[in-house]
Amino acid sequence: MSGVILITGATSGIGRAAARRFAGAGWKVIATGRRQERLDALVAELGADQVHAAPFDMRDEAAIDAALDTLPEGFRDIDVLINNAGLALGTATAQEADLAQWRQMIDTNITGLVTLTHRLLPRLIARKGAILNISSVAATYPYKGGNAYGGTKAFVRQFSLGLRADLHGTGVRVTSIEPGMAETEFTLVRTGGDQAASDALYGGAAPMTGEDIAETLFWVATLPPHLNMNALELMPVSQSFAGFQVARD
Ligand code: NDP
Ligand code: 8X3
After folding, report:
1. Ligand having the closest approach to the CA of 147
2. pTM value?
3. 143 among known catalytic residues
4. Going by C-beta distance under 8 Å and a sequence separation of 6 or more, which residues neighbour residue 51?
5. Which residues contact 73 (CB under 8 A, 6 or more apart)?
6. Cα gap 207→212, rounded to integer Å
7. Torsion angle of alpha carbons 200, 202, 206, 211, nearest 10°?
8. Confidence band, pLDDT 50/70/90 cuts, at residue 187
9. How remote is the CA of residue 122 from the centroid of ligand 2, in Å?
10. CB 53 within 8 A of CB 42
11. Which of 133, 151, 228, 236 yields a CA-CA distance of 20 to 30 A from 159?
């Protein structure tokens, strides 16, 4: 099985690994993200027949529309949308957090995601396609400093389940993918470029990789068409759950 897939955030991490995984299996990949040079590198690596670079910022509705309106022949009938682009910014508590960072997470992880999804729904319904949304374990398990980021990912999970209900009878499949710790540029972005912090988090922890998540996405997207994975939570073996905190006088 193959088709046309649009993957947001294909310049790095999970999205780039997914672009490679699907293109390698013969899918035509529309790769998006802000960093044009990384998208160009992906096209050079995987071939222009296989990958179309569509650089846009998820927060720019007009840029999304322009990119969708100018898709080349062979890339227009989109079968699968992977809503992967997203970010966490900062780990400060709510009372210390930067409101601009909260807004950027909401604008990207929520508003951008719903905008693109809304635009593509007619095509996905016509193709009886699939939507794979990248949520997070942060949607379910709150942690100190996760505040707005966790909130955006809880939205993504619940939006996915709501889409399932709305798309009842259309044949469109919807999945909320909820990973735990995966080593990508995620922590570098979250910390404003602190490589040491990123290395410290992942060091010795055998975290998941972008390729691990890409393989999961490929598996979900290529399940028989009568099967819908509603939600899928995955973690590295090294990561598990901790208890509640108690403040004492
Ligand atoms: P990376 O930082 O490696 O990749 C993030 C991707 O999102 C990049 O391609 C980036 O592209 C894109 N992106 C960010 N902001 C925008 C924007 N405004 N417009 C367009 N693209 C944007 O991190 P991951 O691969 O780890 O993250 C992918 C998804 O996985 C995110 O939604 C993240 O929340 C989620 N996730 C990650 C986990 C982890 O542990 N790594 C765990 C659970 C969920 P560019 O900068 O070029 O625009
Ligand atoms: C990324 C996983 O635990 O850093 O969504 O929030 S976590």
Report:
1. 2
2. 0.98
3. no
4. 19, 23, 28, 29, 30, 31, 42, 43
5. none
6. 10
7. -160
8. very high
9. 32
10. yes
11. 236
